[in-house]
Specification:
By secondary structure, this protein is of the alpha+beta class. The protein contains six helices and seven strands. Residues 182-194 have low confidence and may be disordered.
Length: 194
């Protein structure tokens, strides 16, 4: 069972361990000192920043981090991407990591992405789409997006997280599903398809 809650400052030690894992460090390229983790993740943990850092658990055991935010809350990122792809003003984006290397390659990433995207439709009722840029060389990440149901819509020139990488990113998107109750046929309820 996949669940999540907001990351708290008590989780920073675990997050530091995850950020130091080679499979995470390659793509997140983050300073793992206690001060840097507190500086970069503290504002969201305290609710001082509009993004959400979600500690994802599998059957109660922490396994991943998902960051979720609206592009509108980060205008520089929105502007950089909107100049290259159609970006709805209400679009949400996510970033993610699996912390434990033993859990990589087992299909957990797509399950987490799918669950978080489905929650976006409830948690962010005005969100029309989830749009996720990912570096083209990060095949495990973009394959997880595809397995979770997102489709590649473009290639974009964006600042990389790791300065060793070039600027080439794939952009993935999934749109809010149509409201199943809006398509009603004769009678009082939703139409049942044979």
């Amino acid at each position: 069972m996949i669940t999540w809650r907001r990351l708290t400052e008590d989780d920073f030690g675990l997050l530091r361990e995850w950020l130091m894992q080679p499979h995470v460090a390659r793509w997140w390229h983050h300073d793992t000192s206690p001060d840097a983790v507190a500086r970069d993740f503290g504002p969201a943990a305290r609710g001082e920043e509009p993004s959400e850092d979600l500690l994802v658990m599998l059957d109660g055991t922490p396994v991943a981090l998902v960051q979720r935010c609206r592009f509108a809350d980060y205008p520089d990122d929105a502007e950089e991407l909107a100049g290259q792809v159609e970006l709805p003003g209400t679009a949400v984006t996510i970033d993610y990591l699996l912390g434990d290397p033993a859990r990589v390659g087992q299909g957990l990433g797509p399950r987490i992405i799918r669950a978080v995207v489905e929650a976006v439709w409830t948690d962010c009722p005005d969100a029309s789409a989830v749009v996720v840029p990912v570096h083209t060389a990060n095949r495990p990440s973009w394959r997880a997006l595809e397995k979770a149901g997102l489709r590649r819509i473009a290639t974009a020139d964006l600042d990389p997280d790791n300065p060793d990488d070039d600027r080439t990113h794939y952009v993935y998107r999934i749109d809010r599903p149509a409201d199943p109750l809006a398509d009603t046929g004769p009678g009082p309820g939703p139409r049942a398809d044979p």
